[in-house]
């Protein structure tokens, strides 16, 4: 996932939802999807037709997860688009948080800990995140994983606490190390090296080097480049 280098055309249905509010393309992903901000108050994620089913899956997961964790409220949906309310705060890779990487790191760990502790595995209707092989090693602890726990998918409030998580299209049940391994790898991509200890301290766990190595290798094989 990257920020657009230049302004992008705004689809008509996004402009209609925005009304007289400012519309800005804020994120691009590897599938050609674009997320538009409506004056920072709401967001509309738009996917190409061939990937539109992924937004249906994401909406299903958000509708379920919101009972247990802070995720965006769905306002409306349509073919190839998903319209949500904004969470309070800014992405953990907002320039202000990039300048405060230890604070952002703790918020990322806090968000995953809250999700893992609150969402009930036995009630989760979704399978394993798509990038995790069926023959993964026995879990340290099964949890409802975010599935794409990279730094941009945590929102940090003005109080420097996690205010919620976004991009839940791969949410599912897996070993908590699937999330923890990728989240800590993502710290290097976004803030540079040296912040893993901060993350594990906030999550209140000691690193499991074997599981970290396994899930990072699977992410790189199955999910490709950093999102």
Automatic annotation (TrEMBL):
Keywords: Antibiotic resistance, ATP-binding, Kinase, Magnesium, Metal-binding, Nucleotide-binding, Transferase. It comes from the Bacteria. One of its GO terms (molecular function) is ATP binding. Mg(2+) binds at residues 153, 167. It holds the Pfam family APH. The active site is at 148 (proton acceptor). The keyword Metal-binding applies. SUPFAM superfamilies: Protein kinase-like (PK-like) (SSF56112). GO terms for biological process: response to antibiotic. Residues 131-212 form the Aminoglycoside phosphotransferase domain. InterPro entries: Aminoglycoside_PTrfase, Kan/Strep_kinase, Kinase-like_dom_sf. The keyword Phosphoprotein does not apply. Belongs to the aminoglycoside phosphotransferase family. This is Phosphotransferase.
């Amino acid at each position: 996932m990257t920020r657009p280098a230049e302004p992008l055309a705004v689809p008509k249905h996004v402009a209609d939802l925005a009304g007289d509010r400012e519309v800005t393309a804020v994120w691009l992903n590897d599938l050609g999807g674009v997320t538009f901000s409506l004056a920072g108050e709401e967001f509309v994620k738009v996917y190409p037709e061939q990937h539109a089913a992924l937004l249906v899956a994401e909406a299903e997961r958000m509708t379920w997860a919101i009972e247990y964790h802070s995720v965006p409220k769905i306002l409306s949906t349509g073919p190839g688009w998903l319209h949500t309310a904004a969470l309070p705060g800014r992405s953990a890779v907002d320039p202000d948080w990039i300048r405060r990487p230890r604070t952002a790191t703790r918020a990322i760990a806090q968000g995953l800990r809250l999700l893992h502790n609150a969402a009930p595995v036995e009630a989760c209707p979704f399978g394993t995140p798509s990038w995790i092989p069926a023959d993964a090693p026995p879990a340290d602890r099964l949890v409802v994983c975010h599935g794409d726990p990279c730094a941009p998918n945590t929102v940090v409030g003005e109080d420097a606490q996690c205010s919620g998580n976004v991009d839940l299209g791969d949410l599912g049940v897996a070993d908590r190390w699937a999330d923890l391994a990728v989240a800590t790898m993502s710290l290097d991509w976004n803030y540079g090296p040296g912040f893993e200890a901060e993350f594990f301290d906030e999550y209140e766990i000691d690193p499991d080097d074997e599981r970290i190595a396994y899930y990072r290798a699977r992410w790189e094989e199955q999910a490709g480049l950093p999102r």
